Structures
1.
Amino acid sequence: MTPDDDRRPRADEHRHADPALREDASGRPPQPVTVVVADDHPMWRDAVARDLTDAGFEVVATAEDGRSAVARTRATRPDVLVLDLELPGLRGPEVCAALTAAEVPTRVLILSASGEHADVLEAVKAGALGYLVKSARREEFLDAVRATSAGEPVFTPGLAGLVLGEFRRVKATSQQEATERPIPELTDRETEILTYVATGMGYKEIAAALFLSHRTVQNHVQNILGKLQMHNRVELVRFALERGIDPATHEPRGAAEPR
Amino acid sequence: MDASPQLAVTLDEHALVRGLWRGIDVFRCLALVYAAWSVWHRHDEVAQLTGAIVILAVLAAWTVVQTVRPARTIPMYAAELAIGCAAILATRLVDHEWVITGGAKTVPSIWPSAAVVGFAVLLGWRGGLVAASLVGLCSFIEVQEPTGNTVTNSILVFLVGGCIGYCVDLARASHAALARSMRLDAARAERDRLARTVHDGVLQTLAFIHRRASELGGEATRLGVMAAEQERILRALVSATDLAAVDRPADDGPTDLRSLLGHVEDARVQVVAPGQPVLVERSAAVELVAAIEAALDNVRRHAGPDARAWVLLDDDGSNVNVTIRDSGHGLPAGRLERAAAEGRLGVSTSIVGRLADLGGAASVQSGPSGGTTVRLTLPRHAKEHR
């Protein structure tokens, strides 16, 4: 794989008027987007945190291993967790699973040094919203954090291929053994969009090709992720219980709204 | 027992097996000492002491032969088994009736077990059980009225023959698996080395010939097409990273399509695949890869220097779909037809023709956002699907 090829989202696709500021419908002054950075490499962690701070984000905590990533994210409830895939203690997918099981509303952006592999898919199934390679340029990274904070999935073609394959696999196994759980299936439109993402098209290009709005394409991608993650929720809760992570912290999601 | 000579040749292949053979050699000596001691211990009960000594002498002679120059062959162990059984039966000649029915040991005592274990090592659990049943049968014939000892001893001999034979079978199987995986590793390393050399030299040269020839036109065009075809074949050959391919004929069995596409990736081409294998019959996979390579060659030649390409593998259960999209100039209308008319057969034979031969379909269209999209569809037949 060639990680450098996976530069997504494109710089022009996630431009907002004031990128690091969260829009607030209630008329209060806008709040900066809060971020937690989890990476076991101190220099990388500091560089990411500095880039984010310079761009107007508020880095509320950093973490150097999986367990503290979970603990600090649960404590600070940031808008975005920037998560390295290979962390000591709990691995990236396990951190995602723990956060999803604990119903932390933070959105997770995976940063990975290598190209696509099974771990990325695991992390996305466990609730991560986006994925970016570490070799991405600074602007691409900041755009990806912005997109993630706005709830927009950040997909590379490689990840789209893995997700498409996962839907195919789930369908094939469900045909072999009759399971009682409902099987998530993609609509034709969703398959089409996923295929476009997997062959390197940006949301904007897809929207133009299908005569849809940019927002609609994003919604489709979001739905695709949602189906994938919903299918895994039961396993996530079981996983969290096995690892001694208490999933029963039922705070209302509003608790993470601006303080 | 069928004594196939080939079996004896393939014996000493495993450390465990070699250890067992040494163990049998030691055991045979100890068993001889034990048998001699048993006879000496009850020498006043023995009717024909001379006869018993003769039996022991035969056993001793065989033990010396097998210790000095051990031969782990089926004939030798058949001979040893025969001597052991004869010694058991001969006990009848040298002992009083009342001693035998009283449950005394046979003259060879545990010595025949060495032959049982030997057969277990030679022929696995079946050999062990057959040899054990022969020994058991002889001891039953010898006592005529079975005592408790006879039954217990026969069961023990059965257990020894069966269990050791089973262990040896397992050891052989695991050794074979290990040897196979080492062979595959070596083959892969060698192929990687070859692939690098070939890729850097021969393939690039062929590609260059192809390129120059199509620029020159005329007679050279044919040469170029031939070079391109050879390049593709050679590339498919050196890039077959499917490990199991080493051990089976080249046109056999399902192959993971992903493992055949590693070489097409570079700074401008990305292969996008699912996390699980995309299995296709090997012959079809090679053709499909050749079609993908042809499509990517077109991208390189026509899509412009900055164009990038993505190859998506998607196995939806009934079809294997391959989408090759590039971000280049796209196709002017009618270019494909003109190309075919001018005798430039790249797209029509390399892509459409190949897929038609496989029972699939191929389409080449302008992409949804500029560029070109090639779609290859390979239906899964019942025999491929399993």
2.
Amino acid sequence: MTEERILQAPLKTKDIEKLTCGDKVMLNGTIYTARDAAHKRLIQLLEDGKPLPFDIKDQIIYYVGPTPEKPGEVIGSAGPTTSGRMDPYTPRLLDAGLKGMIGKGQRSKEVIEAIVRNKSIYFAATGGASVLLAKSIKKLKIIAYKDLGTEAIREIYVENFPCIVAIDFRGRDLYEKGPEKYQIL
Amino acid sequence: MREVNASEITNIVKQLCIENNINLDKDVTEKIIEFEKKEDSPIGKQILEQILINAKLATEENRPMCQDTGIAVIFVELGQDVHISKDNFYDAINEGVKRGYTQGYLRKSVVEDPVFDRKNTKDNTPAIIHTDIIPGDKIKITVASKGAGSENMSEIKMLKPADGIDGVKDFILDRVKRSGGMPCPPIIVGVGIGGNFEQCAYLSKKALLRPLNTRNPDTRWDTVEKELLTRINQLGIGPIGLGGRTTALAVQILTMPCHIASLPVAVNLQCHAHRHKTATI
């Protein structure tokens, strides 16, 4: 098995080019949370030609809607949600500069094409490992759509956030290659 | 006739909602440990280890194991000799859900209108409540916290009686295959067969309540469950869908009589955060 690769966010193309699907990654730096409702609003802003609430260039979006934090906690439990629901919005965000996504589950053909077109990357985190993953989140600030509650956009600072390269910049997809390797016909 | 104060129901439901989301049942962790030992994929093995560490951390730190603390699905077996006093039965349950999700720092994931506005109800109510009237003077309450990742991969199909057991198996396998990594494998596959359209869907959810270390009492269906589990784990989907031997921990089937012209089959998928707890009043 490959060793864990340390990766810094925001992403650099030269770092993305070094990663292959199946690589284990420890992610560090500032990333943003957004899921269904926030994506809908971001796309509306792009369609209206208005600026987004954060500079999306080279950034990573983590698809997560955390539980409410208890007093003293940075964040509540915070594992990935199903990425496929964001598929209709994702190509547009990638074309606007987004470089990476963290979520769970396979992506559409359109998303994979947009990943290749924009030399970007998709990471899988372990769905349901939400206490474990929350431990890597060290700072948090709500930067937009506070009214959406759990779906608000949060700027988070992560240290050694564990994830796996699921779709690399060449479009190689572990959701296809992994099962192919282990299926018994 | 036994008198039960509605506030007792509220308290139990509240406790079950919180307890459910923090402590993964032993039968589930034991199954994951069993499969982790057999997992050939290094990534798959590591993911199963993460799931087990996460369950331990959740208990130790008193935090919800998953951020999707679900919609509360509540099964009640209500003894016919019970009289509930002081409050409406369903209101008492929903009050328990509201308190559990608010005081337990659980995520509120319910929206009012499913299409228009999708405005959050802010207290995770209303719960989905299934009530059975049974003999006796007890109230048995089971709370299942059902996340949407796996629920969204569920399906019902009205087969033709001529499709027979092969049609049933093909539909279940196809449903799991098409779901891939989305329902957070390793999953538990709840299957309802028979009844009618809505009863069949209900059976598939109820099938998930059976402890994972038990067998189907009907030997024919026990054999089908085992065969399906083997075939599902040959699909290669693996933990969280990234490849491996562990796609499902169990297949659990519940059946009932149906119309001469029907063969309804429902598949309700359940993620590895398999949360349901029971208490009796």
